[in-house]
């Protein structure tokens, strides 16, 4: 088990903006890529989609790395009129 110092988190997201936000608030963190299929499921609403992916990313990173710290899973998509159009640029 990898123990982290107090106040340390693992970020299960490659988003440069999320890293920047954590740095702005002084949160010590390490990025660990999650191995998650990010395909939209048939009939899946945008909110359900991003919640499912964020949870799956955090669970994947936590379970495959045996971490003793908080794992933050995140995701975002561009949604217009209830339809997912991919990641925001």
Describe the protein's architecture and organization:
- The protein has 2 helices and 7 strands; from the N terminus they run ββαβαββββ.
- By secondary structure, it is of the alpha/beta class.
- The strands form 3 sheets. It has a 3-stranded parallel β-sheet, with helices on both faces. Strands 1-4 form a two-stranded parallel ribbon.
- The longest helix is centred in the middle third of the chain and has 20 residues, at 46-65.
- The protein starts with a strand and ends in a 5-residue tail after the last strand.
- The model has no long low-confidence stretch (mean pLDDT 86).
- Secondary-structure element order, N to C: EEHEHEEEE
Count of helices? 2
What low-confidence regions span 5 or more consecutive residues with pLDDT below 50? none
Structural class: alpha/beta
């Amino acid at each position: 088990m990898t123990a982290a110092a107090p106040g340390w988190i693992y970020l299960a997201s490659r988003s440069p903006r999320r890293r920047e936000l954590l740095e702005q608030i002084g949160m010590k963190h390490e990025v660990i890529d999650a191995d998650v299929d990010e395909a939209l499921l048939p009939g899946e609403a945008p909110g359900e989609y991003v919640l499912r992916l964020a949870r799956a990313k955090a669970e994947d990173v936590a379970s495959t790395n045996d971490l003793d710290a908080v794992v933050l899973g995140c995701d975002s998509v561009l949604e217009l009129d209830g339809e997912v159009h991919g990641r925001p640029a």
